[in-house]
Amino acid sequence: MEEEHTCPMCRDLFDRTQPFPCGHSFCLPCAQEAWSQSAGCGKRRFVCPQCLEEQGVVVCDCCPEDKDNEAQAAVKTCLRCEISLCEQHLQPHLQRPAYSTHLLVEPLMDISRRRCPAHREVFRYYCMDDREYVCPDCILEGQHAQHQVKGVRKVEEEYKVKLQSLFEKAEEKVKQGEMMLQEHQKACRSIIEDSSVSDVSQVLHMGSVLQAQVGQLVSAVINITEQERQQAMERVQEDCSRVREDLNQTESIYRFLGSLLDESDPFLLIWALQTDDSQMMTDLTSPLFTPPQPSMDKKHVLENVENKYREFIAETLRCLIELKRDLLSSPLTLDKNSAHPLLNISEDLRTVMRVKNRLCVPEHPDRFDHWSQVVSCQIFSSGTHYWELEVEGFWDIAVTYHSIGRKSKEGTAFGCNKISWSLTQQRDRKLAAWHNRKKTHLSTKMSGNHLAVTLDYDSGSIAFSEVGLSSTLLPLHNFSTRFTQPVCIGFGLYKPELNSRVIILKKI
After folding, report:
1. Is the dihedral of CA 149, 150, 156, 157 positive or negative?
2. How far apart are CA 283 and CA 239, in angstroms?
3. How far is CA 83 from each of CA 54, 67, 75, 105, rounded to the nearest angstrom?
4. What is the pLDDT of residues 75-128, one digit of tens each?
5. Among residues of the chain, what percentage have pLDDT more than 70?
6. Are 417 and 404 in contact (CB under 8 A)?
7. Is the pLDDT of residue 12 over 90?
8. Residues ≥6 apart with Cβ < 8 Å to 478
9. Where do the H-state alpha helices sit in 4-54?
10. In which band, very low, low, confident or very high, does the pLDDT at 465 lie, cut at 50, 70 and 90?
11. How many other C-beta atoms are found inside a 10 Å radius of the C-beta of residue 145?
12. Residues near 288 by Cβ (< 8 Å), separated by ≥ 6?
């Protein structure tokens, strides 16, 4: 029993055996792989991967066999007449009405397995309840009474309808995977290459300012930046490999389903569809792996730089701090689809302003419908990032899980749940930190409108600071946590007065 249920290709056991017409049995994944490879090579029919039935040449049974005339290769086998026919001798079966009910399949060397072993009649029907082929005598004897019995051609037609639906799903998923892979590769090249060029340029500029004293620093930072770029490229390649794996799996199913649709032998088609297709449906309905937004983590670069030159003069330290913020600055834009109708988003997606009258915006599942809030387009799941903002009026700046609720009142305001951390300035310019409905009053006030946010995802650190004179950072409040989901930046402008707005400053 174990040998009968062992796949001869992978040597794994499978639950139910459904042999090929030739008598060999395989697990579904191995059959799919073999048939997908055959389809990729341009073959139009399924063959047994073990005996390779296709390699045999079936000759015409009607051609005379003598020394002068050699029998022609058959192009079809008639299961009613139990003969194989070449193109010439096939014509009567195609033209004469008397042969219209005869079942023609691809040439077969042995049709004994297409015949009922009990009655020696060719199988022309299929019992859906017992999941087996039956001949007319089996039906007359009542062995399948009250069972759902259909003609083989009818079953073939029904299965091809089902196959067409699966085929279309596979085709759509293949297209989606190819598009996602192309877009991700393009975005990765742009972000990583541009970031690398910009970093080296900034380091070289600092070297010219500090002259020979920073020469060693320049070389060290370039080397560290290159290492970080290589690591970022490796992460990108890993993400692309996962996308390719999903794409290759879907393409394999796509080729498999395409081959099934082109299959003219109903027995092989029914065999393939009688195997458990739940895994195939799961693969087709499961979403493709969506790679995260690529980013380069400059934290290690800056730590090495600061450790080597802590003793530098004040001007050197100021240059290093400025370099730190430039390297960590990440792109940040506002997601218009998430913006509450009382928030006006600028064309460049970098400014949000509170308005008194609701704007006409389309419905969207990501849009906040109670609190006048908006989140960033960018999502972060690793690395260290830095942003500078210009803030005015009554504002709320938050780091929040991207999964935060967008509908209703309860649990969707920044800082009033476990998944967001925010800093708020009220009418009197007093500051407060919020997390999980807990409000922490801060004794300090901002002297200006220049705010900095630093996010270290890996260590779970969030720092809010005021950018003072000479670009020095004046700490306002720090949060420490452990992130378990991707985060984004959130902006809340709850009061229409005071000209409340936030501008994302672009680092040059």
Report:
1. negative
2. 19
3. 17, 22, 11, 11
4. 898 887 888 889 989 999 998 988 888 888 888 777 777 788 888 887 888 898
5. 76
6. yes
7. no
8. 461, 462, 463, 464
9. 28-40
10. very high
11. 8
12. 173, 176, 177, 180, 243, 246, 247, 250
Q: Which amino acid is at 133?
A: Y
Count CA atoms closer than 13 A to 212's CA, side-chain side: 0
Mean pLDDT, the chain, as a whole number? Answer: 81
Question: 267: Cβ–Cβ under 8 A, 6 or more apart, which residues?
Answer: 21, 105, 114, 123, 133, 152
Q: Which tokens go with 99?
A: 């042969």
CA distance 233 to 229: 6
- Return d(Cα 275, Cα 283) in angstroms, integer: 15
> Which residues does residue 343 pair with via DSSP β-bridges, in sequence order?
354
The tens digit of pLDDT for each residue in 317-331 reads 666 667 667 667 778
Residue 476's pLDDT is 95
- Let me know how many helices (H) and strands (E) the chain has, helices first: 9, 19
pLDDT tens-digit series, residues 28-53 = 777 667 666 665 555 555 566 666 54
Closest CA to 292 of 188, 399, 398, 401: 188
Q: Is 198 helix (H, G, I), strand (E, B) or coil?
A: helix
How distant, in Å, are the alpha carbons of 175, 288, 344, 482 from that of 291? Answer: 16, 9, 30, 22
3-class secondary-structure state, position 459: coil
- Return the exposure string of 218-241: e unless at least 16 CB atoms fall within 10 Å of the residue's CB, then b: bebbbebbeebbeebbebbeebbe
CA dihedral 298, 301, 302, 306 (to 10 degrees): 170
Angle at 354 between CA 425 and CA 477, to 5 degrees: 20
Tell me which of 52 and 263 has the higher pLDDT.
263
Q: For residue 469, how many C-alpha atoms fall within 13 Å in the half-sphere facing its CB?
A: 1
State how far the Cα of 409 lies from the Cα of 417, in Å rounded to an integer.
Answer: 12
8-state DSSP, 72:
P
Q: Is the pLDDT of residue 483 over 90?
A: yes
CA–chain centroid gap for 344, Å, is 32
Residue 54: per-residue pLDDT = 47
Contact of 428 with 405, CB cutoff 8 Å: no
